[in-house]
Amino acid sequence: MNAPLLRIENLSMRFGGLTAIDDLSLDVHDARITAVIGPNGAGKTTLFNCLTGFYRPSSGRVSLAHPRRGLLQLEELDSHQVASRAQVVRTFQNVRLFPKMTVLENLIVAQHQRLQQASCFTLAGLFGLPAYRRAEAQAIAVAVDRLTRLKLIDRADAVAGDLPYGMQRRVEIARALCVDPILLCLDEPAAGLNPRESAELNALLQSLSGEEGLAILLIEHDMSVVMNVSDHICVLNYGCKIAEGTPEQMRSDAKVIKAYLGEDDEGEQPGEFSGAPSQ
Amino acid sequence: MALALQQLINGLTLGAVYGLIAIGYTMVYGIIGMINFAHGDIYMVSAFIAVTGFTLLAALGVSSVPLALLVVLVVSVLFTSVYGWAVERTAYRPLRGSTRLAPLISAIGMSIFLQNMVQLTQGARVKPIAPVLIGGFDLLTIDDFTVHLAYSQVLIILVTVALMLAFTFVINRTSFGRQQRACEQDRTMTALLGIDVDRTISFTFMLGAMLAAVAGVLVTVYYGVVDFYIGFVVGIKAFTAAVFGGIGSLPGAMLGAILNGLIEAFWVAYLPPEYKDVATFAILILVLMFRPSGLLGRPEVEKV
């Protein structure tokens, strides 16, 4: 296999006496969907926070092999550099759009870098110079492309906060794609989606990784998503990696089943778990 | 009737000045949720730069009024925006992420510091300048009362309207404006989209200081006197205007400032003038009692 895009080595995150992540190592590859699953409180979101400059890890390294900028240490970057330099974007468990802006504006904010350069720090924008207009037109074209892809184009001018929940989730993904990510970190993208929306999400994730070669790191509780789309699954429990492998391997892994369903001491059928675990 | 018209003109002029300053309060509140109590003193610093500028230009023999105005405006805006940046960088940014009260107290400290700095370096006495813009239009005369519109008032109102339009455009239509609004709504998410939030906040402070700088220059032209303490009362009144209109709302700040200016002008004309400040603050209290989110502010809904 090729060298990984993202290599997490011996990552630990401690809050006082609590160890949220304990010596975790994980590789994330291009064109593959890597899922991180585990019971509530297993440290999944903490992992994302360590990747995106929210927390400084207590120890360990997070190295990103950027195709143009070389090797970047994510744990040393500020939040905004994670997106602007490393092109790693994340979404949140609860939707975080800019609720008072329109959908289109939400997507244009994500492309500010191009615009800021073209606008020479707003001066050119203020006077409406051609270079700025071109950059703006380009930003709108990118936004329209992402919106079309996520079937949101007819809602481009709607105020983001007024959209139904499932749609807001799609806007969030569309916005993340406007940053031109090389690694997309999705925190429970299927939460609150109905089965049809969830199936659409599966198709979208598969086309992003399969056709466009995007690396996706996914936290998800919905097993119908995880088992269907993941190429690789990492299972966390109490901050430790307890298992790692393909969906098939995880389905029958004794430790995984134990972490999810508890000790099997009443002769219950361990079997496969296909639905979402109880939360 | 004539008196009312005269006070309408005076009130609008005063309101325009308050408006330019109120924008700085409301914008900073919108983006980082703190009241920048040093903002009034930024305005005072700009007035001093204006006095220095006009005096220097007069000494150098620059007699063209538009040229002098332009030079002083540009110089004052540049210097004052550096002040705005430095205040944020030294007094507020290190406290970001601490309690809400910490930067507030730091702001009061910064206000006292700026006042004392100017008092020490410039002296405590009132500084007059030779009138820059003399004359005006006599609009009409009723019963020996002539309604007068000074050139300086025309200048204040025109400059304010132009700046407000430009400013609205910057906030609504440019890349910086979009970043600024994004930071207002969700700073964390803005950073995760690759926007340097600290820089956006710095720019916001600089933009607020620029508008206050223009107000400082215009007031110097209008009244012709400054002292190190002018920032306090004007700052508090502009802050009142921002709360009146709904703090965090830009059109609200402009509206609140104009209403504040008019209330003050009409109070002075018809009621005991010594109580004009009481009038302003009484209205603030009433607004806070009956419409706490201000005229154009929307009540904050806590998300669950």
Number of strands of chain B: 4
* Structural class by SSE content of chain A: alpha/beta
Kindly report how far apart the N and C termini of chain A lie. 36 Å
What Rg of chain B, in angstroms, do the CA atoms define?
A: 19 Å
Approximate helicity band of chain B: over 70%
The whole-angstrom Rg of chain A is 20 Å
Largest sheet of chain A: 6 strands, mixed
Features:
heterodimer; A: Rossmann fold; six-stranded mixed sheet; 11 helices; 10 strands; about 25% strand; globular; B: mainly alpha; two-stranded antiparallel sheet; two-stranded antiparallel ribbon
Question: How would you describe what is shown here?
Answer:
The complex is a heterodimer of chains A (279) and B (304). With 279 residues, chain A is of the alpha/beta class. Chain A folds into two domains: 1-87 and 181-279, P-loop containing nucleotide triphosphate hydrolases (Rossmann fold, 3-Layer(aba) Sandwich); 96-179, no CATH class. Chain A has eleven helices and ten strands. Chain A has helices spanning 44-51, 79-84, 103-109, 112-118, 123-127, 130-149, 165-178, 195-210, 223-229, 247-251, 254-261; strands at residues 6-15, 18-28, 33-37, 59-66, 70-73, 88-90, 183-187, 215-219, 232-237, 240-245. Chain A has a six-stranded mixed beta sheet, sandwiched between helices. In chain A, strands 2-1-4-5 form a four-stranded antiparallel beta sheet, with helices on one face. Chain A is globular, with a radius of gyration of 20 Å. Residues 267-272 and 274-279 of chain A have low confidence and may be disordered. Chain B is mainly alpha-helical. Chain B has one domain (14-231). Chain B has eleven helices and four strands, in the order ααααβββααααβααα. In chain B, the strands form two sheets. Chain B has a two-stranded antiparallel sheet with strand order 1-4. In chain B, strand 2 and strand 3 form a beta hairpin. Chain B starts with a helix and ends in a 14-residue tail after the last helix. The mean pLDDT of chain B is 89. Classes of the chains: A alpha/beta (279), B mainly alpha (304). The interface between A and B is medium-sized, with 34 and 25 residues.
